[in-house]
Structure to design on (396 residues):
């Protein structure tokens, strides 16, 4: 009886053994344990010519650009204090807000008391270093405020129409007034001079048309400037003003309020909305609804046969709202700027009249733009209810 041999068994341990005596031996692969994924260190890309390893700051602001909100309606005017520590804004919402001009620009005070829109505002510094604010309103009054306490010290009464503009002397006005003088222009066709130490106005300059812009002259502050819807820029010698009581007597040069008109300059073809004196006190800057800004030589004697209109800056616009858009000089007089209805901040080189900066960002008409008195910073106010404060780049 024959038996069938059992089938060969497979041994895993010998699976790598040769199946024939002539097949070479092969090494079994070692089973490595599962390892965690390896770590990859991040290597930053090399610096290029456009990469700045450090952020160079040019101001005391915490960010290169800050947006200030707080007003409930259009913001019409801005003004820095002489030391650059504070910024004040005025609005259609009848209030003025005082902001810190450093750090995050926090709101530090609110000035309330006007019954209608506040169209213009200025800081004024007293001899003792006290900071005051003077405001012009559509309620026919001006307010004189203590900037530290926020209290209204005085209310100037006398205008019978909307007060469009206000200005204070540069510095201390040659020592006159101890930081208590101001002037205003109104729709009642008058310019009135004020002294916070006395009751009522101290002088009246009557015009044939509404007054939309005013400015103090430099030096001793004895010359003031006004402009309005007649497109003329007027210079007045206020030493001949006898006060409100003598307003009935017409002065030389066309004044009906006791002052003497010394110059009448024409160049704009539409309403002049703002005037600003340069830091040296030699030239005046004007903004107009004709879409231009112009500079004027206001020194007593000029060359070129008495031609006083110097340069024209184009690029800004006005619109159907007919807003009183401002104009301003940089602290060294090398740049000029002004409000514009195209929602853009425009800055020009004063020497060449070329536009240096074109800064979008607002969503409404830019009503006021001013330069910081100490730092390379500008502030702009808009009908979009906001204020932008930002650094200007060091190079164009």
């Amino acid at each position: 009886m024959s038996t069938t041999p059992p089938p060969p068994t497979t041994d895993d341990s010998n699976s790598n053994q040769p199946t024939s005596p002539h097949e070479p031996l092969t090494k079994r692969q070692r089973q490595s344990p599962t390892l965690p994924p390896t770590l990859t260190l991040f290597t930053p890309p090399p610096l290029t010519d456009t990469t700045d390893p450090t952020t160079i700051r040019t101001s005391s602001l915490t960010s290169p650009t800050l947006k200030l909100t707080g007003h409930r309606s259009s913001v019409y005017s801005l003004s820095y204090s002489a030391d650059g520590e504070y910024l004040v804004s005025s609005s259609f919402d009848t209030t003025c807000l005082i902001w810190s001009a450093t750090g995050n620009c926090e709101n530090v005070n609110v000035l309330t008391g006007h019954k209608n829109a506040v169209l213009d505002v200025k800081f004024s510094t007293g001899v003792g270093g006290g900071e005051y604010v003077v405001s012009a309103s559509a309620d026919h009054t001006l307010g004189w405020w203590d900037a530290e306490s926020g209290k209204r010290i005085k209310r100037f009464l006398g205008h019978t129409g909307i007060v469009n503009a206000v200005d204070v002397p540069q510095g201390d006005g040659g020592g006159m007034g101890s930081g208590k003088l101001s002037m205003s222009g109104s729709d009642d066709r008058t310019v009135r001079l004020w002294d916070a130490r006395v009751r009522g106005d101290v002088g009246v300059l009557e015009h044939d048309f509404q007054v939309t812009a005013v400015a103090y002259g430099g030096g001793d502050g004895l010359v003031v400037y006004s402009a309005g819807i007649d497109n003329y820029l007027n210079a007045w010698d206020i030493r001949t003003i006898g006060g409100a009581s003598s307003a009935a007597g017409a002065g030389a040069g066309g004044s009906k309020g006791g002052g003497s008109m010394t110059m009448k300059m024409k160049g704009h073809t539409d309403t002049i909305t703002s005037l600003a004196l340069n830091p040296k006190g030699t030239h005046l800057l004007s903004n107009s609804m004709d879409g231009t800004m112009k500079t004027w030589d206001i020194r007593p004697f000029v060359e070129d046969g008495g031609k006083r209109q110097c340069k024209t800056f184009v690029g800004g616009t006005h619109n159907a709202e007919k807003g009183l858009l401002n104009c301003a000089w940089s602290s060294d007089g090398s740049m000029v700027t002004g409000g514009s209805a195209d929602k853009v901040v425009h800055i020009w080189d004063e020497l060449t009249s070329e536009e240096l900066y074109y800064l979008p960002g607002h969503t409404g008409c830019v009503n006021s733009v001013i330069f910081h008195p100490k730092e390379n910073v500008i502030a702009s106010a808009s009908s979009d209810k906001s204020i932008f404060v930002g650094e200007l780049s060091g190079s164009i």
Observations:
- The radius of gyration is 35 Å.
- The chain is about 0% helix and 40% strand.
